[in-house]
Amino acid sequence: MGDHPVVSAIKLQECFAGTSIPWFSEVLDAIKGHHRIGKDRLGVILRQADGQARVKEMILSTQEMQEKPLDSWCAGPEVLAIVAPRINRPLKGSKWAAFSLKGVVYVTPDAILEAAKELARQKKIVEMGLIRSTDREDTLRRLVKILGAADLLAMEIGEHFYGRPFDIFTKKAGIKQRGYFVPVKLEAFQIAESELESRKVAFMQLVTEFQLGRG
Fold first, then answer.
1. Is pTM, for the whole model, over 0.70?
2. Half-sphere exposure (Cβ direction) of 76: Cα atoms closer than 13 Å
3. Alpha helices, DSSP H only, in the chain?
């Protein structure tokens, strides 16, 4: 099925054989290359149509799946409930999915996205924004907007952003690293702060401050 844009273009040519439409060749070129074209209006529309078609294909392949708008099934508290077990759990090196400090949990955008994907699986929902890598940033903005609407964010995040940059300070080394996080109220996770603190090991125990960065 890798040549489906070309097949679509051929079928369209057959349908409009004998007609004279000034912009028809541009449409054909866009269809043939809709996975490569930039953000021009026609290209965006074609990619959206392609995504919608794939959603329908997936739904037809299993009667259990449903297609619903993100904000109709994705609740902020449910997303955070999936993130909760990962707070202060070390990943490779000095990385983590979510870190708690002074009443705030700093969650990586990837952890938010993965939690939304898991919630979709649990509810048997098909959402192309969670599947297509090209939709990642737009979907993250929508997810953060859902968290903000539920008053779960620890600080305001601009409309066109899905997180804030932070400098991370430690007891010994000053700035240890910089990261981009979604700041969430600790109380939103309904876990005692003492329990979260008890999870910290190694490098995590040295972190003293997350300071809002510039740029």
1. yes
2. 19
3. 4-15, 24-32, 41-61, 70-73, 76-83, 109-123, 136-149, 193-198
